[in-house]
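REQUEST
  id: r-88c1
  op: predict_structure
  target: Protein kinase domain-containing protein
  payload:
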Amino acid sequence: MIPPLLFQLMILLSWPINALAESPAIAKPNCPTSCGNGNGSVSIQFPFGIGDGCYLDHQYEVTCDSSTPFLRSINLTVLDISISLEASTILVNHTVLRSCNLESIPGEFVRNGTVNLESSPFFFSDENRFVGVGCNTFAYLSSNRSIISGCLSFCDRSNISAETMPLSNVTLRNSDCNGIKCCQTRIPSSRDLQQLRMTLSTTNYEENTTMTEQNKCKSAFLVDQEWFGNNIDSPDKAQGLKHVPVLLDWGIHESSFDLIERNPSKRYNNTSDCNQIFAHSTSTNTSTNATFTMPVRRCRCNPGYEGNPYLLHGCQGIGIGFGALFLLIGAWWLYIIVKRRKNIKLKEEYFKRNGGLLLQQQLTSLDGSVDRCKLFNSKELDKATDNFNMDRILGQGGQGTVYKGMLTDGKIVAVKKSKAVDEWKIEEFINEVAILSQINHRNVVKLLGCCLETEVPLLVYEFIPNGTLLHYLHNQAEEFQLTWDMRLQIAIEVAGALCYLHSAASFPIYHRDIKSANILLDDKYRAKVADFGTSKSIAIDQTHVTTKVKGTFGYLDPEYFQSSQFTDKSDVYSFGVVLVELLTGQKAISSTRSQDNRSLVTHFIVSMVENNLFDILDPEVTKVGKKEEIMTVANLAKSCLNLNGKKRPTMKEVATVLEGIQASQKESNVQQNYEEVEYVRTELIEPWDVVST
Ligand SMILES: *[C@@H]1O[C@H](CO)[C@@H](O)[C@H](O)[C@H]1NC(C)=O
Ligand SMILES: *[C@@H]1O[C@H](CO)[C@@H](O)[C@H](O)[C@H]1NC(C)=O
Ligand SMILES: *[C@@H]1O[C@H](CO)[C@@H](O)[C@H](O)[C@H]1NC(C)=O
Ligand SMILES: *[C@@H]1O[C@H](CO)[C@@H](O)[C@H](O)[C@H]1NC(C)=O
Ligand SMILES: *[C@@H]1O[C@H](CO)[C@@H](O)[C@H](O)[C@H]1NC(C)=O
Ligand SMILES: *[C@@H]1O[C@H](CO)[C@@H](O)[C@H](O)[C@H]1NC(C)=O
Ligand SMILES: *[C@@H]1O[C@H](CO)[C@@H](O)[C@H](O)[C@H]1NC(C)=O
Ligand SMILES: *[C@@H]1O[C@H](CO)[C@@H](O)[C@H](O)[C@H]1NC(C)=O
Ligand SMILES: *[C@@H]1O[C@H](CO)[C@@H](O)[C@H](O)[C@H]1NC(C)=O
Ligand SMILES: *[C@@H]1O[C@H](CO)[C@@H](O)[C@H](O)[C@H]1NC(C)=O
Ligand SMILES: *[C@@H]1O[C@H](CO)[C@@H](O)[C@H](O)[C@H]1NC(C)=O
Ligand SMILES: *[C@@H]1O[C@H](CO)[C@@H](O)[C@H](O)[C@H]1NC(C)=O
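RESPONSE
  id: r-88c1
  status: 200
  body:
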């Protein structure tokens, strides 16, 4: 038990966990938080936004047509938006200045292009590099009419000397883009860089190079150095570039800032700081032509907080919860220990209650070892069935639910979870598990083991892949139809299994719920009798058991129904119903038949009497089955369904007749006469020992 005080403490402390678990908002409420799909998805953080009311002002308006985030104010596609303690940046997709002009005369200007971010809150970051590509190329960058950076690249390096360099400042470095076909250089770390002109020109130096198609092209661009370093490892790759990511710093214009937030410290409760003026943007008053500058501020979360500092409550505490968290973890740990102990005790209790000790004793005495019936532990079966996941349910019946599971060794099993245990008499259950685990018949589903540590006992069976006979007989949609030979084979196998249970096993076992739904088919359509939930084993000197009537309507022996006395002949009756199902392909109880013929047994008997049996047979049967064979099986079924149990054949006799048909198929000249067998049986019937309820 958890001390009540501790429990209260836990409740009290559980709220900061919720606060911690909630991930901080990145966009305004009800606004899209991302644009694009898969790897190319860009998270749209405020002040950027998609749609009215989602962005701070038109500078940050993003459109998301065809999954491409487009920043309208500067006409560029956005590849990433990032807000960190150090910087607020965006990555944009920019075109490369490029020329493949064949006639370019040495020393002449080739091409130029400008990028103008003036009056926007966006600036070229000094984390970009300026790159020139091509043979005999001089690429340079100018701003406000003065050159601020540039570099040279040659394809023929034979006589490059200091004198041939037009600019002494140009550096040749980085083994991959170092002046041979490609050159790169830093740009000044002026914060206010908003307007750039890139120029490509040809040096006076004459290249001693055969001009390939590619070598004829020159290009120049600004590029995010991180991307360039990670993606471009050869001049040839640089030569092919048409678009490159460029990193832009951004902030918020003083004027816009005032619009959203007049008193920052109050509004943000000191979780964020927006006092840093990091750059000045230049604007031109269109009416007066006067240029003026405007401060641009940037926000960041204060120490101990993280998130989006541009949003109200965007920064969330990451440190506050720690003290409480430790206390909580301590409490949780205690609780787990207490609970685990309680669990172990409970498991032991269940094990005792479910007769685990008795089973161990019985199995040991039967066989000298417990190997025959493995005792699984509950954890193993939880894992095997994915905690008894609904998706794993194979079927549900009166006795419980069957789940498909996979043991750690990869073996596929069926796990049956019994319904409430109180109705079961533990000794009987244990007796049955012990006996079933002794049964080793190829047409009886094998019990692999059980688990008694849980509230209700769990039984573990081998998994039979093809489902029930019921499904194959009555599912019209099923493309696969059981042939006459298969039906005969199934009947023989089930009869053999029942015969074994009734006589060959060390104690007679009555199945008590034979029906097509309890006959499973394996991958070769071999029958396996399943569901011994209601089965009874009886002492050798008994010929019947007196119980509460259990079974399935439509298969139930009418004599048992009246007397509550279950005998081996009650199983024979149920088997007779299965035989009729195999012959007719119809359900034991069906509302599609007329009122009088709801019950398949009645329907069948009436047809036999009125001599129109062949009208009700399954076409699949009449197609191939020989008339004599069909008649033999029909007569056998009829005798199994005799209202007087004593007049029914034993399972052994049934099995013999069925095997006889198969044998006669092989030696078709041997005639099988069922009539003879039917009357031999009467002599074999043992005295009917009546025990009253
Ligand atoms: C997406 O990302 C994964 C791993 O980061 C990478 O293997 C894959 O190539 C990427 N796909 C595209 C289309 O970029
Ligand atoms: C963006 O493109 C439109 C038309 O394509 C043009 O009118 C506008 O001036 C451009 N804006 C910028 C900042 O280049
Ligand atoms: C950049 O734009 C070009 C042309 O629109 C496009 O082909 C390219 O895929 C874009 N690059 C990235 C990384 O989105
Ligand atoms: C830029 O190129 C244009 C033609 O495209 C030319 O008229 C102009 O003079 C060039 N400017 C510079 C500085 O080279
Ligand atoms: C451009 O240069 C002129 C003088 O050369 C200077 O007065 C002006 O402030 C500069 N503008 C910028 C934006 O740096
Ligand atoms: C070139 O370098 C010298 C000093 O090394 C410096 O004074 C000059 O401003 C630089 N020129 C350019 C265009 O960067
Ligand atoms: C390059 O070297 C060759 C001889 O090796 C010479 O003829 C030529 O003038 C040199 N070019 C320059 C630009 O120095
Ligand atoms: C040009 O290169 C070739 C071989 O690459 C060489 O034989 C020739 O001497 C070079 N000419 C000049 C002027 O450097
Ligand atoms: C700021 O904190 C005070 C008390 O610490 C609180 O009453 C107020 O609601 C908070 N304001 C905001 C905007 O979070
Ligand atoms: C916020 O922090 C500033 C200094 O950083 C301080 O002067 C101010 O009183 C703080 N405001 C609140 C509400 O804590
Ligand atoms: C441009 O200048 C005029 C006159 O100084 C002023 O009235 C107007 O508000 C200015 N426009 C902008 C957009 O700043
Ligand atoms: C502003 O400059 C443009 C060209 O640069 C000129 O045509 C216009 O007359 C100027 N306007 C004023 C008010 O000076």
